[in-house]
Amino acid sequence: MTEVKVGIIMGSQSDWPTMKEAANILDELGVPYETRIVSAHRTPDRLWDYGKSAVDRGLQVIIAGAGGAAHLPGMMASKTRLPVVGVPVQTRALSGVDSLYSIVQMPRGFPVATMAIGASGAVNAGLMAAGILALQDACLAERLDSWRAALAESIPEAPSDD
Ligand code: RP5
């Protein structure tokens, strides 16, 4: 059985279209992950249990996405020493600036690696998780290098009108 080392958690089903971008990139890189809805406000006990058991279950990185009063990544960081990568989900009312500020401004001692707002942030969260795991996994490091090289290769040298 392949060991799952990345947990992708989110505050609500409504965050999934954004957080799926993190899952997609991990699929591309061949990194197994699990996905869970864990809300800081609506299911605090689930958050606690998840954070408490994360290390023992073999997780190595947690990607946490939430929107609005986005307390999930920070609360998860308070409960586990695993690296927590935070994704501010774009909100309708405040375009995700609320989510960003809720996630990024952590008190000293409990870091959250905060990504950009929305889909780009979720993709980068997946890449960040892969980069962390690649430190101990030479095959994954090779796949990540190839992925990065292919992206660079796909960028044209000059703009076109098409
Ligand atoms: C947050 O509230 C979630 O992360 C979500 O982004 C936001 C709205 O949740 P729903 O009302 O759509 O379930 O906790």
Automatic annotation (TrEMBL):
HAMAP family in the record: PurE_classI
Protein name (Swiss-Prot/TrEMBL): N5-carboxyaminoimidazole ribonucleotide mutase
Pathway terms, separated by semicolons: Purine metabolism; IMP biosynthesis via de novo pathway; 5-amino-1-(5-phospho-D-ribosyl)imidazole-4-carboxylate from 5-amino-1-(5-phospho-D-ribosyl)imidazole (N5-CAIR route): step 2/2
InterPro entries: PurE_ClassI, PurE_dom, PurE_prokaryotes
Reaction equations catalysed: 5-carboxyamino-1-(5-phospho-D-ribosyl)imidazole + H(+) = 5-amino-1-(5-phospho-D-ribosyl)imidazole-4-carboxylate
Keyword vocabulary terms for this entry: Isomerase, Purine biosynthesis
UniProt-annotated binding residues for substrate: S12, D15, R42
Family: Belongs to the AIR carboxylase family. Class I subfamily.
Keyword Isomerase: yes
Isomerase is among the record's keywords: yes
A GO molecular function held by the record: 5-(carboxyamino)imidazole ribonucleotide mutase activity
Leading EC class: isomerase
Pfam families in the cross-refs: AIRC
Any Gene Ontology biological process: 'de novo' IMP biosynthetic process
Task of the protein: Catalyzes the conversion of N5-carboxyaminoimidazole ribonucleotide (N5-CAIR) to 4-carboxy-5-aminoimidazole ribonucleotide (CAIR).
Residue ranges of every copy of the PurE domain listed in the record: 4-155
EC numbers for this chain: 5.4.99.18
